[in-house]
């Protein structure tokens, strides 16, 4: 089920819209709209509706039936008689331009306002949720669900109002998108969680993924702080950033993690200060993502680390991302079904094995295909073989994983 786009009250006059997008006004330039919408099913009477065009849809066909106060269109012939609008060459580009200016306007409202941007091949959403929880004292707003693309990020930025901290997740499946998204938000803090084979079908090699993900760092405001996963061999080569992870030399380090009942007991070293927490999220990934959140908390300002950990402890698991569920006969089901990639699958298997051992139980893994890997698909699906050897029983679903299952059977 798609994540609903959050409502906003971003205000623009048609003159501002034209100035920010390079468009041409039809109607009164002083006309002011309240709220930006791209969803024809949920348009307010005072809203500015942006008619997006995609490979399989064109929102211009809905324009004549909508009650919006004004429109942003690329096809003026779609407008009803008497409608107020701004005509632009590309409505998606216009949406991003409006979001950029709204974010700048928001930031200018108070010197303490900070925008945190998070990207990576895996762990983005969990890190985003942990960061929001860690910063709870500052009442942050952030990305809802996985609205992290060229539509979702602008719609998130439009929600910025009186809050002083924003946490925005940024994803990609094509080259150049992270740089575009980062430029919209101009982050004060930029986090890169991991570089691995994910969306390589649209981006290219793992080196191309590295370039794509780390391009976020170049979009930071002057004086911004980059934060990267110090366990990632590529990311640890970047200078002038804070590092988090399990490795020696990390500024925020996971010293240990163990399963404590249904919780993950973690000890972190946060830039020289030792602190402990018991997370509802499961396993090694939770501990490392928590370190990322604490790294953010340590630089944003106005956040007590003890309070940050308390916020993270209160966070419930994100559905589909190593979320525990009760099973038949006392079994524990770990649901990690959301959009897996090779790195996240291997980490999930290690974590699940640790949990099973701690419970004194048997581990059964149900593994499905990993999408959008392009030319790397066969190689990366084969990488689960070694991890599968440590699993008592495997069920493979989908043609790629079925081939892996056959390979494991042949080798045993």
CATH class of the largest domain: Alpha Beta
Shape: globular
C-alpha end-to-end distance: 39 Å
Strand content: 15-25%
Write out the CATH superfamily name of the largest domain. Mur-like, catalytic domain
CATH topology of the largest domain: UDP-N-acetylmuramoyl-L-alanine:D-glutamate ligase
Look at the structure and give the mean pLDDT.
Answer: 89
Low-confidence stretches: none
Number of strands: 20
How do the strands and helices of this protein lay out in sequence?
Blueprint: E1 11-13, H1 14-21, E2 24-26, E3 32-34, E4 36-37, E5 48-50, E6 70-73, E7 85-87, H2 91-107, E8 114-119, H3 124-134, E9 141-142, H4 152-157, E10 165-169, H5 177-185, E11 189-192, H6 200-203, H7 206-214, E12 225-229, E13 242-245, E14 252-260, E15 263-270, E16 273-279, H8 283-300, H9 305-313, E17 323-326, E18 332-335, H10 342-359, E19 364-367, H11 377-382, H12 384-389, E20 393-396, H13 399-411
Parallel strand pairs: 4-5, 5-6, 6-7, 8-10, 8-11, 9-10, 11-12, 12-13, 13-14, 19-20
Antiparallel strand pairs: 1-3, 2-7, 14-15, 15-16, 17-18
Helix pairs in contact: 2-5, 3-8, 3-9, 8-9
């Amino acid at each position: 089920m798609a994540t609903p786009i959050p409502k906003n009250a971003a205000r623009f006059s048609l003159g501002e819209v034209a100035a920010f997008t390079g468009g041409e006004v039809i109607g009164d330039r002083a006309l002011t709209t309240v709220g930006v919408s791209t969803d024809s099913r949920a348009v307010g009477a005072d809203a500015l509706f942006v008619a997006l065009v995609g490979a399989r849809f064109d929102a211009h066909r809905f324009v004549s039936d909508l009650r919006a106060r004004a429109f942003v269109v690329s096809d003026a012939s779609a407008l009803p008689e008497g409608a107020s609008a701004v005509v632009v060459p590309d409505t998606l580009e216009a949406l991003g331009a409006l979001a950029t200016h709204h974010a700048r306007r928001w930031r200018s409202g108070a010197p303490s306002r900070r925008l945190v941007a998070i990207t990576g091949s895996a762990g983005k959403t969990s890190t985003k949720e942990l960061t929001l929880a860690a910063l709870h004292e500052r009442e942050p707003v952030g990305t809802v669900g996985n609205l992290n693309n060229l539509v979702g990020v602008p719609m998130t930025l439009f929600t910025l109002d009186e809050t002083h901290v924003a946490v925005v997740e940024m994803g990609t499946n094509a080259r150049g998108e992270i740089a575009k998204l980062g430029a919209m938000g101009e982050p004060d803090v930029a986090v890169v969680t991991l570089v691995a084979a994910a969306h390589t079908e649209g981006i290219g090699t793992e080196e191309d993924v590295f370039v794509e993900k780390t391009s976020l760092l170049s979009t930071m405001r002057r004086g911004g702080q980059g934060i990267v996963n110090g366990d990632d061999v590529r990311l640890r080569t970047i200078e002038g950033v804070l590092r988090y992870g399990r490795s020696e030399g990390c500024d925020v380090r996971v010293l240990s993690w163990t399963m404590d009942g249904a919780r993950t007991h973690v000890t972190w070293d946060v830039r020289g200060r030792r602190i402990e927490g018991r997370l509802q999220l499961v396993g090694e990934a939770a501990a490392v993502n928590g370190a990322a959140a604490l790294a953010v908390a340590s630089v944003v300002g106005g956040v007590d680390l003890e309070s940050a950990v308390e916020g993270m402890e209160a966070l419930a698991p994100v559905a589909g991302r190593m979320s525990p569920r009760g099973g038949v006969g006392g079994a524990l089901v770990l649901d990690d079904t959301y959009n897996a990639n090779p790195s996240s699958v291997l980490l999930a298997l290690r974590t699940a094995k640790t949990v099973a051992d701690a419970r004194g139980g048997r581990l059964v893994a149900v593994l499905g295909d990993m999408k959008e890997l392009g030319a790397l698909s066969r190689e990366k699906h084969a990488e689960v073989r070694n991890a599968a050897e440590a699993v008592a029983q495997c069920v493979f679903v989908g043609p790629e994983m079925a081939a892996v299952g056959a390979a494991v059977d042949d080798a045993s």
